[in-house]
């Protein structure tokens, strides 16, 4: 552990105590329990007694609780029904079903009376000299104009619009413009390849795309429009024709152009009015689709709907970050992921917040960038991922300590388990031991944060996401589905619905039921392993399925395998995750070649490039091991447990290999492992 990642013992003793617990990694360790400091409590929205009372009310009588909190958003037509959900049989989830509202109207129009000149979005460019502020008034005009452009080109309520954008305000305008007219957006992360983009365009049959000429990250251009052109060709072959592409000019870089189909954003918005009436949407009308990886098959289109989602993300944004009027709030995620949807755009804007949108990367132009941006814009609430923290921690404390960070009041993390060393570093070095950390556990499917501390209420333990948010009923079950009480380790399920939950897999409700509700009948299964300690705190241990988490990005091992076997020289592939110091998990690939093919360095590079082309840079394999054979049971099932152990360099504990068809392949795998310590 780094010497300076903990405060001196005496200092610590004043504010904290130590506890021996069985940590998320299954090992006993000493845990630093950080008491809620008086300063955190002082103006906090929720103290511990309030948390306990509200939580008890919320699970005892969800109708009453959410009936009250549903009013935090504005409605064209108020709801009379609150909760109508079932996790059994066909699974049906409806919240506030007879109410009518509109998301963009809630995120913009209703604030105009009080906040028209308040900054809604602070945009911080990749280049530190490049920034912009957009007031709520300006946001209104931008969103209305783009909504009118979409209408002019025939986009109607219920149509799917694909957004493939860099982190520029126009990405938020595009999302909000869709919600204004009732179109369903599907944002695709700008790091995905043309193939991956094409698959997502085709899956939801989207004929309208909004993109930019190029993105810019760490000084390097990203050819978004060229990628879009390629994707449109691929999608056309699959049977989906894209009719219109709106292109934002970001860099002015050269791109190809298809007359008739492609239009410039800046030219189009000049032709329409800056006012557009928000469409009256039913509470359960679809809001957006977001593709995410699972254990099997291609990515699923997670579908979120209008009202429940907005109520949930605005409420969690307010209470989890203890958001107060006037706070400057910054979440470093990309809008291509759910964190960007819920906690850069919808949650903060529904609350009339000032939300910072960052185009760049943590280490450009220097390792101090995050902290410089915090000082420059006086950021009060900062929300980032453990992978970024580990990388910055490795660069040394001086990059942090040379900045002030005095404005900080709440720190947050999300995306993967945070190791206690990184947590303590975040707390002591970034927060100077004075700022609470909220370690928020949630998923694309959950829409918003489910397990988290509240800054003024929850004593903190480094590495634990602590306690459930209002209305959330976590349960641990063993492999047979038996519910485990008290201190226990098991699979994390949620026993009942909350308003922000996904409603279905777009176009495939059966897959929704199968994936989330069939493993443990009547419960939502998260795919995560988890431990509950004797304070009732939850410690997420990571995925128990074939999903890996690389730098906080979720990836299905099946997707990487299918990319590998699509290479002509590959006959079979198996992919597993292994612990990686910075990324959390790395991608380890076992590859069996076609008969007659010889393994060599060049082929290894070719396979890495092949996967990058097929999925995108985020799927770049870290290790490729050429394997003459994979360990299989006599019925032909690959024994991933063994592959995981070898990738972790932990082959002494391979467990029972007697059911293997050919035990000898294991010796070869061990001898040629790529991760020798
Ligand atoms: C993991 C991101 C531990 C978890 C919002 C989950 C976490 C998956 C945490 C969802 C956390 C997210 N502690 N693990 N605080 N937050 N995860 O869909 O494995 O991209 O199932 O949503 O990330 O990833 P997704």
UniProtKB/TrEMBL annotation:
Substrates-to-products reaction catalysed: acetate + ATP + CoA = acetyl-CoA + AMP + diphosphate
Post-translational modification: Acetylated. Deacetylation by the SIR2-homolog deacetylase activates the enzyme.
Cross-referenced SUPFAM superfamilies: Acetyl-CoA synthetase-like
Top-level EC class: ligase
This enzyme's EC code(s): 6.2.1.1
Residue ranges constituting the AMP-dependent synthetase/ligase domain according to the UniProt record: 109-497
MF terms (GO), sorted A to Z: acetate-CoA ligase activity; propionate-CoA ligase activity
Record domain Acetyl-coenzyme A synthetase N-terminal: where: 51-107
Record: residues binding Mg(2+): 565, 567, 570
Ranges annotated as spanning the membrane: none
Source taxon at top rank: Bacteria
CDD domains reported for this sequence: ACS
Cofactor dependence: Mg(2+)
Stretches assigned to the AMP-binding enzyme C-terminal domain: 559-637
Modification N6-acetyllysine occurs at: 637
Gene3D superfamilies in the record: 3.30.300.30, N-terminal domain of ligase-like (3.40.50.12780)
Protein residues bound to ATP: 415-417, 439-444, 528, 543, 554
Function text: Catalyzes the conversion of acetate into acetyl-CoA (AcCoA), an essential intermediate at the junction of anabolic and catabolic pathways. AcsA undergoes a two-step reaction. In the first half reaction, AcsA combines acetate with ATP to form acetyl-adenylate (AcAMP) intermediate. In the second half reaction, it can then transfer the acetyl group from AcAMP to the sulfhydryl group of CoA, forming the product AcCoA.
UniProt record similarity statement: Belongs to the ATP-dependent AMP-binding enzyme family.
PANTHER family xrefs: ACETYL-COENZYME A SYNTHETASE, ACETYL-COENZYME A SYNTHETASE 1
Official protein name in the record: Acetyl-coenzyme A synthetase
């Amino acid at each position: 552990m780094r010497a300076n990642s903990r405060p001196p013992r005496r200092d610590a003793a004043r504010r904290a105590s130590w506890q021996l617990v069985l940590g998320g990694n299954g090992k006993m360790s000493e845990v630093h329990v950080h008491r809620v400091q008086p300063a955190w409590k002082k103006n906090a929205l929720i103290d511990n007694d309030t948390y306990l009372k509200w939580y008890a009310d919320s699970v005892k009588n969800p109708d009453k609780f959410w009936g009250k909190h549903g009013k935090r958003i504005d409605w064209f037509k108020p709801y009379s029904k609150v909760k109508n959900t079932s996790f059994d049989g066909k699974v049906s989830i409806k919240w506030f079903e007879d109410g009518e509202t509109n998301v963009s109207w809630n995120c913009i129009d209703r604030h105009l009376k009080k906040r028209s000149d308040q900054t809604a979005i602070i945009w911080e460019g990749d280049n530190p000299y490049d920034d912009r502020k957009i007031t709520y008034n300006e946001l209104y005009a931008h969103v209305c104009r783009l909504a009118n452009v979409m209408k002019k080109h025939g986009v109607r309520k219920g149509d799917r619009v694909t957004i493939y954008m860099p982190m520029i305000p126009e990405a938020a305008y595009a999302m909000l413009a869709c919600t204004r007219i009732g179109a369903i957006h599907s944002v695709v992360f700008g790091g995905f390849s043309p193939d991956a983009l094409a698959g997502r365009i085709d899956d939801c049959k989207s004929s309208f795309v909004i993109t930019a000429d190029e993105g810019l990250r760490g000084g390097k251009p990203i050819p978004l429009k060229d990628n879009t052109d390629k994707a449109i060709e691929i999608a056309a072959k699959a049977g989906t024709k894209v009719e219109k592409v709106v292109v934002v000019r970001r860099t002015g870089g050269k791109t190809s152009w298809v007359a008739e189909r492609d239009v410039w954003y800046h030219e189009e918005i000049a032709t329409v009015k800056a006012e557009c009436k928000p469409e009256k949407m039913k509470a359960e009308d679809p809001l957006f689709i977001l593709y995410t990886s699972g254990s099997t098959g291609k990515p699923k289109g997670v579908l979120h709907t209008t009202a429940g989602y907005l109520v949930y993300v605005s409420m969690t944004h307010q209470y989890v970050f203890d958001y107060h009027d006037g706070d400057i709030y910054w979440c470093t995620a990309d809008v291509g992921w759910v964190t960007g949807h819920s906690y850069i755009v919808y949650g903060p804007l529904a609350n009339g917040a000032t939300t910072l949108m960052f185009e760049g990367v943590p280490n450009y132009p220097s390792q101090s960038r995050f902290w410089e941006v915090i000082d420059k814009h006086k950021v009060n609430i900062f929300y980032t991922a453990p992978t970024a923290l580990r990388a910055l921690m490795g660069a040394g404390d001086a990059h942090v300590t040379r900045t002030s960070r005095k404005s900080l009041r709440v720190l947050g993390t999300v995306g993967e388990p945070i190791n206690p060393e990184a947590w303590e570093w975040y707390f002591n070095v970034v927060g100077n031991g004075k700022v609470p950390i909220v370690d928020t556990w949630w998923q694309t499917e959950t829409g918003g944060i489910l397990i988290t501390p509240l800054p003024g209420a929850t004593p903190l333990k480094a590495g634990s996401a602590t306690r459930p948010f209002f209305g959330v009923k976590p349960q641990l079950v063993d492999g047979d589905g038996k519910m485990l009480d008290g201190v226990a380790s098991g699979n994390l399920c949620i026993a009942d619905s909350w308003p922000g939950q996904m409603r279905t897999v777009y176009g495939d409700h059966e897959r929704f039921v199968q994936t989330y509700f069939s493993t443990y009948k009547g419960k939502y299964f998260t795919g995560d392993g988890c431990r509950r300690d004797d304070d009732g705190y939850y410690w997420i241990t990571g995925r128990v399925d074939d999903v890996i988490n690389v730098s906080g990005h979720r990836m299905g091992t099946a997707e990487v395998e299918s990319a590998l076997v699509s290479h002509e020289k590959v006959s079979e592939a198996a992919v597993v995750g292994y612990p990686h110091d910075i990324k959390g998990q790395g991608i380890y690939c076992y590859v069996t070649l076609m008969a007659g093919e010889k393994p060599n360095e060049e082929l290894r590079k070719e396979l890495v490039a092949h996967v990058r082309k097929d999925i995108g840079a985020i799927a770049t394999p870290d290790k490729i091991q050429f394997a003459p054979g994979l360990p299989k049971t006599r019925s032909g099932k690959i024994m991933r447990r063994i592959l995981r152990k070898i990738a972790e360099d932990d082959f002494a504990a391979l467990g029972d290999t007697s059911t293997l068809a050919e035990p000898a392949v294991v010796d070869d795998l061990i001898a040629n492992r790529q991760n020798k310590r």
